[in-house]
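step=predict obj=YqeG family HAD IIIA-type phosphatase n=178
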Amino acid sequence: MLKFMVPDLFAQSIYVIDYEELKRRGVRGIIVDLDNTLVESTRPDATPRLVTWLDELRDMGFHVMIVSNNNRTRVAHFADPLGLPYIHAAKKPLLSAFRKALERMGTKREETVVIGDQLLTDVFGGNRMGLYTILVAPVSNIDGFLTRINRRVERFVFSLLKRKGHVQWERSNKGEST
């Protein structure tokens, strides 16, 4: 079970990932979490930097889809102005939303990555589905109630992963990487 918690890659943010390398590896689809991955959970709209990032990904030929555990109102308000497809109330780490995202993007498992800020939802679900997983540092330390509980469990899992030599990076108690 612990192996499903190890991301394939850790990045400080979505902006430092080498998308050219992903494209060379045959990646065509990007499943991305919304809250604390793309923007703070308290920010209702995309930042100009995020809009530019999305445009660049689309220009590179990537299909991008938000898969979020948040409700329809939150996700639709954010995604619709950007023309981004989404799945809300995804119940990650369950696999049904990941399967649906692959189907809607028309991509195969080996052509798709998952990017998110949580081990217990994004990484665990993506790994169980056989997708390439990228864990990013949360963009904010403000989390909802359930996410705060997840972060506590994550700290324990990180310590186990570190002791077993599965991680090459550090993560502080506040969710920031160092």
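step=describe
The chain is about 35% helix and 15% strand.
step=end
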